[in-house]
Amino acid sequence: MDLAKNSLLYLDGVAVSFDGYKALRGLSMVIAPGEMRAIIGPNGAGKTTMMDVITGKTRPDEGEVLFAGSTDLTQMDEAAIASLGIGRKFQKPTVFESQTVRDNLVLALQGDRGTFATLFHRLTGKEATRLDELLETIKLQDRQNELARNLSHGQKQWLEIGMLLAQEPKLLLVDEPVAGMTDAETMETAHLLRKINETKSVVVVEHDMHFVRELGVKVTVLHEGAVLSEGSIDHVANDPRVIEVYLGR
Amino acid sequence: MLHSARRLAARAFAPLLLTFGLVLAVLAWLPSAAMAQASIDAALEKLTTDSYSDTIDAVQAIAVSGHPRAAVIIQALQGGQLAFSAAEKKVYVRVGNDLQEAGSGTAPATAPADLADVRANNRVRGIVSAAMGSLTLLNPDPARRLEAAASVLKSRDAAALPALDQALARETDPAVKAAFAAARAAIVLNKTDASDNERVAAIDLIRKRGGQDALGLLRGLPADTPKRVKDAAEAGAKVVETQLALWSGAQNVWYGLSLGSVLLLAAIGLAITFGVMGIINMAHGEMVMIGAYTTFVVQEVIRAHAPGLFDWSLTIAIPLAFLTSGLVGVILERTVIRWLYGRPLETLLATWGISLILMQAVRTQFGANNREVGAPSFMSGSFDIGHMSITWGRLWIIVFALAVFAALILVLKRTPLGLQMRAVTQNRSMASAMGIRTPFVDALTFGLGCGIAGIAGVALSQIDNVSPNLGQSYIIDSFMVVVFGGVGNLWGTLVGAMTLGVINKFLEPYAGAVLGKILVLVFIILFIQKRPRGLFALKGRSVEA
Amino acid sequence: ATSAALSAQETIKVGILHSLSGTMAISETTLKDTMLFLIDEQNKKGGVLGKKLEAVVVDPASNWPLFAEKARELITKDKVSAVFGCWTSVSRKSVLPVFKELNSILFYPVQYEGEESERNVFYTGAAPNQQAIPAVDYLMSKDGGEVKRWVLAGTDYVYPRTTNKILEAYLKSKGVAEADIMINYTPFGHSDWQTIVSDIKKFGSAGKKTAVVSTINGDANVPFYKELGNQGIKATDIPVVAFSVGEEELAGIDTKPLLGHLAAWNYFQSVKNPANEAFIAKWKEFTKNPKRVTNDPMEAHVIGFAMWVKAVEKAGTADPDKVIDALPGIEAPNLTGGISKMLPNHHITKPVLIGEIKADGQFDVVWQTKGLVPGDAWTDFLPGSKDLEADWVTLKCGNYNTVTKKCGA
Amino acid sequence: MITSFLLKGFDRRVTFAVLILAVIAVAVPCFNLYLPQNHPLHVPTYLVQLWGKYAAYAMLAVALDLVWGYCGILSLGHGAFFALGGYAMGMYLMRQIGTRGVYAHPILPDFMVFLNWKELPVTWYGFDWFGYAAFMVMFVPGLLAFVFGWFAFRSRVTGVYLSIITQAMTYALLLAFFRNDMGFGGNNGLTDFKDILGYNIQADTTRAGLFFLTVLAVILSLILASAIVNSKLGKVLLAIRDAESRTRFIGYRVENFKVFVFTVSACMAGIAGALYVPQVGIINPSEFSPANSIEAVIWVAVGGRGTLVGAVVGAVAVNWGKTWFTGAFPAYWLFALGALFVLVTLFLPKGIIGTLSSLMARRPAPAGTLNPKPAE
Amino acid sequence: MLTVSNIDLFYGAAQALRSVSVSAKAGEISCVLGRNGVGKTSLLRAITGHQPITKGSIVWEGQDLGRMPPYERARRGIAFVPQGREIFPLLTVRENLETGYACLPRSERYVPDEIYDLFPVLKDMLWRRGGDLSGGQQQQLAIGRALVTRPRLLVLDEPTEGIQPSIIKDIGRALEYLRSKGTMAILLVEQYFDFAKELADSYAVLDRGEVVIAGTKDEVDPEQVRAKIAV
Ligand SMILES: Nc1ncnc2c1ncn2[C@@H]1O[C@H](COP(=O)(O)OP(=O)(O)OP(=O)(O)O)[C@@H](O)[C@H]1O
Ligand SMILES: Nc1ncnc2c1ncn2[C@@H]1O[C@H](COP(=O)(O)OP(=O)(O)OP(=O)(O)O)[C@@H](O)[C@H]1O
Ligand SMILES: NC(N)=O
Ligand SMILES: [Mg+2]
Ligand SMILES: [Mg+2]
Question: Which residues form a coiled coil (chain A) (predicted)?
Fold first, then answer.
């Protein structure tokens, strides 16, 4: 129980099935406040499904999902969970296509999300500065007034990362952030995440082993909906079961 | 005997009594030919006054005249083949294009100039058919005897008892025999001079027979009926009532399914153009209408050139309606719809425009009025299952709707074309990259949806107006059905249509047609709250994204 | 719409306000053609007051507010001298204020629920006492089958509801018990009649002679009659007498199974009368269609138009205000052999005919009133209106209360 | 706060439109009332009334564009809100008739007298007072929209499912209002109005005044709608329109936003209906007919979805076309109108205003591809 | 043999490709590299016919493809694995594969076993809807689906995106195998440089819509390429 109390995110025995197919089978995991965790695992292991469960997109059939030791996430909807401070970047980049890059970020900026608050909202100087910072981070300053639909695949990835940052969540769930990025960008992203981790907790899913190594954090390996192995990157990379199902020879 | 028969016949409740009078007269007393001739001549003269009451007197007189041509004359009147000349005071029977003098059967030298039909109104027709029916208690055709039994059951007249007893004694066919027995029981039950035991036995028999008529009989006893009989009748009525309630449940299901099949037919084409292709096809109803007009044209051509084929008219119309509506669909797809893929909401605007154009085109070509589409003989009439009546037309429509549905499912799920259709509508550019000729498949899919709507038009022409507005009256229901069932799921459309049909038919008797319809709409609204993606919702990641 | 061949000085314009599209086009298109035909005929005779008549046709598209808009357009923009138009009561209600405001003339040719008499409107169709009540009287007579049990089936709107209310009161006054009256309403365009027809069948199987009085309107009729045929309800068992089914409607139905069902109107195409035969012949010629039928509302326009022409000639001007005053008292022959007269209440005198459906889609007239029945704007069978009287000649009032002796009070 | 909020509404397009509308609002009544009949600029009363009707339609279109164009809620039932507003106004006008009805009943409207009603139904209480009626004009449609939206949006009914249940709603109301038992005049509806706030409803001055008020209402609704869509809430609406579930994941309560615009829009539609009724002189159940609501959607599409000003232009253009066609070619006008709709979709894919503004921005539409974005 | 010469491509007014030339030969793997948004995908869309070009030519097996629609190109042996997978979401895995039959003669309408050998997961999931698969599974399906058409030119847009390391290796081996058959030209767009380097027979590096480095693996220094991408 202590484990749960002192954790930021606590999953215990989470099971999800779709029309009989068991995507998660008793997944348990604990993320401590301020921790960054890398999650790897074969295609179809259930990584994205796990994030769906945490963010309220999918209701688990069984198991406990607690945030900050006590908040039961399984009883809340997406918006409520997001307001708790859990932000997410999707595996397939999803941005608001018919709005400008800048407006995408404005929407994501932290702030009161109430109906009337947004109706009468005016952009403060602080917010504007923050926007410029973010645009610089994601290298889209010169495209800030373009519609998001005109971005290339990789640029959308960046924009989505920017939106995640704009929310300033307590916990960031990042699903395959470097897919479609060049090696150099991959490294940059790793640094970015590490910097963020100074103040926030991060859960990152990736298949890029260089990237995971660069993060230098504890790694959890999922397989068939449950934890297969956990530990440092070197530990899991040498685990024969991980090599068998995931890394290959 | 004759005398008493005549006196009875003169009474107000004449028709059936007269019938039995005739039977008895024939059986018991053969009048001399001369007397018959005299009475029929007097009667025939009455037919030339063009007055309904004279006609009724004449029919009654002819019926009891015993004249050899009596049946011919009455039959002619029934068939509208009896004509008269007021100037000559003569009556003629039309036989094809020839005339026969009614009394003699000889052909007149010249046809009279002022020949006019002997007219009949409902009252005359009632008496005529009773007179004709009189012969049928002993008719060689068992079906006719059954009808005769039914009419006796309805009349419950004690005077018919002896004839009925006689017929009963001779009867060999068990079904007819049962019917005769029931008719007899109906008479006995209402006969004040029958013994209580006889009447209770009759009640028993009627109760066993059951049905709406039985209920009417058991509940409609005269006021002076002894208590014992009354109680027995009431007990019997209760039994019949429960049984009828069950049957009426079944009947409602049947009505519901048959309404459902109409909804299904109307919606199924839309399940393709809207459900599969995502086109908000407001012109769907007009495709149905075009199918109905195709049926009309086919029937016109058949009527004009090959009347013998009339019973085949729908069979011929089905492929033609499919092709006509389908072709219109293909043309529309190639000229308008194809520019709108990826802009589904704009298809609403364009197809609405198309619908206006098609409606007005049909109005200009065929006029604003309803057009007559007839029913082939195999779709007319009805039969009974227990105490439930099933009309052939409705039965065929259900069968037809299910057949169309099955065919469509097969095409979509089991043929390469079906796979290509689904692939194209799910991701047009990727389908193209896989080598699928998307323009061809698009045109064909839209054409298929429209063609099926056209087929629906053939069936709907049997139960509804064939007018330029035909489509408008189905478009809303069609969308409701497709959406209620779950967009993109054909099975949903089937189950949705049947569910809405049955619900509607169960609400209607309690709430009335108007409130019933309102309640069905409210039901749909509430149901969608529970299942926001319809009855058979598509599930899974791609849908929820 | 104006054929601008003649300048406004030389012609008298006549507005035609009938739906040519939408749900009512089915009924109203024919009336537009009738008016064109009548105007054509009149022009052949030299027009009116030495001027040619000019038809102005617009399409109010079965849309009630559009009726008002189009009426206003006809009167103010096209400056027509009179308008012939409308079918449904709601369309008439919609244009009424316009005609009153702009003081023009409307000839309304369709049977309706009554309870109205306006200075600017001339009602050439039947009031309830010219159709519904005689029809019921006939069914209660020996020839009509001495009906004891009644189904009042109608479309759920004002005309059927009012008519049925009047009929219910009337039947009860004739000693019919509550239990022997079944009232049923259906929505516009109702197409699934299975339940209702089987209910009627049930209601009629109680041993008493039963009849259906149908105020079912428009498109719903075809499926209704088809279902009657399918379920084998014959006129000799349960006759149906309809108030809104005429030759035009029957043209769209296979009438063989409907033999003997009835309709009550003030005119049938089959009426044997030289004037009628001449009219039918010319009509077929005008429409170039030998199968084209005629019907009651057409005859109403024939009478109304003839009256208007006479009134214009009497007044010596087509000015609506003068013509309105000239119209009451004008007589014009109807097509059934009588002379109809415009009454001070702006309704006319008409014969009432009962016809049975024949196999060829025509009606066989089986009964008719001895003379002409004057149309009654305010029915005597409803408490609210039995004291009211309309008289635009002496009282100059459409709703004079005979008890309080005041207009509109 | 409110003024600075409303000022956001004045973007270039709206400001331009507001100016033009303001000129029309003043000029048309003046030209009607103060210029002699034979003056070339004189506006006949029937045109004042006709254009007043178009203005009411335009307001309905703006309301619809707000929910459809910006939030992706394709309501096929907006005619119901319009009609409810219209009925509220009609009931007020009906009560103003007083003893001038044909049966001269001091309280009951004519149709109640002749259907034998003995007393005024509760639903009619208070409608003799204009303030109450004016309140109900907004309150009834607003409440219906709020309740309907509350349930539907909470249950996450979206897309065509929502469209179809809004259609079911208006269809059910159509059938209900047809029934005489409802006490709203059945099929004939409410008509034969005499005066409004003591002014004769048929007087030219009243007509001109109503016209002015209606155009003013259009102006206000344009500004309000524009302010809403230009606010941050407007961006949230767009986000919901394009990716509803994504919007949830960044913490917005989508259902609240939807209920908010849906209700605001319904109130607007109700006011439009209330302004419409005294000008056309009748309100009856056919206003609930699903086809009317679809037509309103079509006005918006013709003018340009998601442009607000386009809604005004579309409503006026289509209705003016209808007026003209039905008079000029009564037998063929449906061909013309139908063709208009087809041609607009094919050649002006963003509607009149949408296409105009992209032309002015000199940004040619993405070339060539029929399907730039493959379906997901 | 595919020869793309001097093509220009526009999105509205924005130019995405400027006089780009690349080529691909049977039995070789040609790699296109570049940072985000430089026009790699645009180039492939031009080749497969999803986006029209305004200048230049694309010649395949001696024929100028001009404005030929994508399905005609597919019928001429060009198969496409797009970025973002583009699975038919409501078709089952099997049906997704069978869409490839459209450009095959009746006798060849089957799914070659090699595909299941390469991606065993597909075999287990034949009856699952494509849209329900995980991202990596979808990517495997997209590659398998392209192979069903027995292409002579295989165009792949970042095929390793989202795929687990062991399968990336398998894909690499598969591409080598396909190359070794000698009948198929392969055009590969990649960001994962090490993977590309292993396979590439020739390089084309794009920057801002222009080819900045081009040549065979012998002519071009891989480190130079890596540096160019890293800028
Ligand atoms: N809605 C669904 N219906 C059926 N199966 C599903 C559904 N959602 C996920 N699955 C299955 O659940 C499993 C886990 O999927 P998930 O997306 O979580 O995998 P993943 O670990 O994120 O894989 P990848 O690395 O490829 O992204 C997969 O086998 C997938 O096919
Ligand atoms: N549909 C479009 N409309 C307008 N501009 C577009 C469109 N698609 C791409 N672009 C722009 O064209 C340029 C090239 O895009 P492309 O998708 O070809 O890049 P890419 O090299 O594939 O990038 P990535 O590695 O991110 O996939 C980018 O700047 C992008 O913003
Ligand atoms: N007046 C009628 N028939 O509506
Ligand atoms: Mg995943
Ligand atoms: Mg790319």
Answer: none
